[in-house]
Amino acid sequence: MSHADVLKNLGFTDAELTGGTLAVRSPIDGAEVAQVRETTVDEMTAVIANAQAAFRAWRTVPAPRRGELVRLLGEELRASKEDLAALVTLEAGKIVSEGLGEVQEMIDICDFAVGISRQLYGLTIASERPGHTMTETWHPMGPCGVISAFNFPVAVWSWNAALALVCGNPVIWKPSEKTPLTALACQKIMERALVRFGDAPAHLSQVVIGGAEIGDALVQSKDVPVLSATGSTRMGSIVGPRVAARWGRSILELGGNNAMIVAPSADLEMAVRAIVFSAVGTAGQRCTSLRRLIVHNSVRDDLVGRLKKAYASLPVGDPRDAATLIGPLVDQASGEAMQSALAQAKEQGGAVFGGAPAEGPKGGVYVQPALVEMPGQSAIVKHETFAPILYVMSYDTLDEAIAMQNDVPQGLSSCIFTLDLREANQFLSAAGSDCGIANVNIGPSGAEIGGAFGGEKETGGGRESGADAWKGYMRRQTSTVNFSAELPLAQGVKFDI
Ligand code: UN1
């Protein structure tokens, strides 16, 4: 199917795809796919006011009824799965299976959120005073801003939107400037769900297109009480303090520098498969991508030999071809960042295998994934480069390996390959991995929506998806009700007038 057909199937008109100020290029071949209209900073005032108006109506709709909207969104996503996935491939350069997987992740969170819409549980609390009851209730917060990155151009919005909507909050989404079309397509899918729902307030779901100044309007507005931002640590270090300064709540999903420890007892055949998927999948452009391999000295040569063999035959190329496993990097700047990281790694004592430009459609940035054997965790290893570079280090004792795994500024995802129960549990213990995600015998990427997703340190501390992530989108209220004819004070305080 041509990309013109995909855009038509998703409901785009020619007028929406031409004449705008933002040129959209496909990483596949650098060709311009559309020129979309950008939101102006002046328009942001009305966007936020409209979200506030939607909030006043939506917050009183019963939560299970709000869940019905998200159920319909899930149905519409199922109906548009192939087209939206094809657009993800076109605009973000993901291979077909990963594009489909990303849309599936959206459907999964919708299903999850529908269930949550009937489980926004508070507490009944034992009061110390006779004739009193205490309860805790969760209420909607207000408009929720979502700033997302190019690499998961649609799923990140859905993790936030599905929960925010059942929690009673409108959503304003600022996607990456690199992937506005997928966001506009999601908005169209959402609008179909809204029509079927019937009586939702206008402006419950809005998309704003533009650069940092548009995002900043959300970041700075006290009328956007929840701000969820996914992207670089640099971006988060600006957004976090600004939201805090106006007493807003931020949910930050920033950089990762994810490691795998490979212990002497590891099933190396399985480890190789896990390493290759997590290090080169999505061309190393996931926040959960495997970037550091910490391998026991006794199995190092065997493992590195197997990896070099696997790396040498990986199919790089047009992500639309069924045989391709590694599509393009998102743009020229990414290619340059990769080459610069490899040069720094060499200066810091690394031996580079791979990493050269690869064949692919003209105009796209295609690279061979790189394996870099490092003498230790030098500066470049501690830095997240969004490209398929895997640094390999070795260790002798598990304590040493865990210390190395934790000795980076980021704290998103981690894993160990071992068949030794003691080692696995040490890795998962309080003295083990310091990351938000710690796995055993699977790689660090490809998390399911049932678990809380996010990480510590420079990863930002936010959590999306998972059992109680909904609490991040609601405010908590404690109520004490006196049904007696007395007025006893807590803590035995006497205050007779
Ligand atoms: C991201 O790269 O921003 O765990 C998110 C994963 C996916 C999400 C990645 N479920 O790899």
From TrEMBL:
Its subunit composition reads: Homotetramer.
UniProt-listed PROSITE patterns: ALDEHYDE_DEHYDR_GLU (PS00687)
Active site (record annotation)? 253
Q: What region holds the Aldehyde dehydrogenase domain?
A: 20-478
Q: Which family does it belong to?
A: Belongs to the aldehyde dehydrogenase family.
Q: Could you tell me which InterPro entries the record lists for this protein?
A: Ald_DH/histidinol_DH (IPR016161), Ald_DH_C (IPR016163), Ald_DH_CS_GLU (IPR029510), Ald_DH_N (IPR016162), Aldehyde_DH_dom (IPR015590), ALDH7A1-like (IPR044638)
Protein's UniProt name: aldehyde dehydrogenase (NAD(+))
Molecular function terms from GO: aldehyde dehydrogenase (NAD+) activity
Keyword annotations from UniProtKB, A to Z:
NAD, Oxidoreductase
Enzyme Commission number, as recorded:
1.2.1.3
Native organism is Cognatishimia maritima
- Pfam families given for it? Aldedh
